[in-house]
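yo, 4-hydroxy-4-methyl-2-oxoglutarate aldolase is done. seq:
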Amino acid sequence: MDWRTTDLSDAHPEAETLPMVFRSFGGRSRFQGRVRTLKVLEDNALVRRVLEQEGQGQVLVVDGGGSLKTALLGGNLARLAWERGWAGVVVHGAVRDTAELKEVPIGLLALTATPRKSAKEGKGEVDVPLSLLGARVLPGHYLLADEDGLLLLPAPPSGGQSAG
Ligand SMILES: O=C([O-])CC(=O)C(=O)O
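structure:
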């Protein structure tokens, strides 16, 4: 994997970028994939519903409203994401089971960890445009994440797609 978000940002100054306000909880700190989105608040039934779907080459971006009150993902959902082939999950909110998350070899970014679980009512919106940290995050766009932040492009950068 020889790309860097810094180099890609220099090459694509028009790209949307998100600063690295996230902590990396997963086994991979560098990952990339086609974006799917979710907008939820302290309810993670939809997180499970989407992660149950085939995720090969995809990254789920969850706008949890920045709430740190409940965890939107834990060890079970992280393992489910890995089993379904997801490249990563970005949570603008909290996660839990951090000791388990680091054993899961995908990208798992979140603001922080908290022990409390989320509601399971299924409220929220799937595959809607998100506005996160000043960036537009659109379903179908392509996300690349590394230690410096996240970068979004309408399509995979040339040479970047095969790099896992
Ligand atoms: O099920 C949940 O609410 C989140 C969780 O703890 C897990 O994924 O293991």
